[in-house]
Amino acid sequence: MLSKQKTMEALTKMYDMFPEAHGELKHRNPYELLIAVILSAQATDVSVNKATPALFEAFPTPEKLAAAPIDDIIPKIKTIGLYRNKAKNIKACAQQLMDRFSGQVPQTREELISLPGVGRKTANVVLGDAFGIPAIAVDTHVERVTKRLRICKLNASVLEVEETLMRKVPKELWVKTHHTLIFFGRYHCTARSPRCEVCPLLDMCQDGKNRMKEKTLNVK
Ligand code: SF4
């Protein structure tokens, strides 16, 4: 595994590559971000961003969403995967915001996780992006990149990936690291075609070196 120092070296190169890394879900307030993140489970941010402007125009507050019939919510999010379940979840979530939190999005992980459709990853995104509270949300990109670079153990669970990153990265860099790892995984170290041949991290990436070796052997 990469040491704390090597991990920061790797991350610094990624920060340089993607200085503009940021959350890509469109939102104007914590309520909209929370709903957008719930909708983004097993769906792309692009598909969520296409649907949410009309959704939030129709239901601009938790109060409006909580009071809406499911059949009015479904058509607004029909282009997003698992929309039936998600319609139920966002309505139930809005109801809980009204019943338990006076229509406000709570600012602790425990309270966020207690809401329908909200898991640890969603809670961490909301903490970091809506409230600036340090948190690292581990999605498929964060997990893949940190394992390829051996920042984390290959058999680490999602929670272990998060805990390893929290140990190795200073707290004030957690949110930036989360966004940078996602950009790096989405646009450079992709699942199918990582760009190892032009990667500034190749010298510290065993996975990348193995891939390059395989490519050379295939050419011969
Ligand atoms: Fe990803 Fe390849 Fe770079 Fe390693 S060398 S971090 S596998 S792109």
UniProtKB/TrEMBL annotation:
GO molecular function terms noted in the UniProt entry: 4 iron, 4 sulfur cluster binding; class I DNA-(apurinic or apyrimidinic site) endonuclease activity; DNA binding; DNA N-glycosylase activity; metal ion binding
Family recorded in the similarity comment: Belongs to the Nth/MutY family.
Gene: nth
Protein name as it appears in the record: Endonuclease III
Cofactor annotation remark: Binds 1 [4Fe-4S] cluster.
Keywords on record: 4Fe-4S, DNA damage, DNA repair, DNA-binding, Endonuclease, Glycosidase, Hydrolase, Iron, Iron-sulfur, Lyase, Metal-binding, Nuclease
HhH-GPD domain sequence ranges: 39-187
Protein species of origin: Enterococcus hirae
GO biological process: base-excision repair, AP site formation
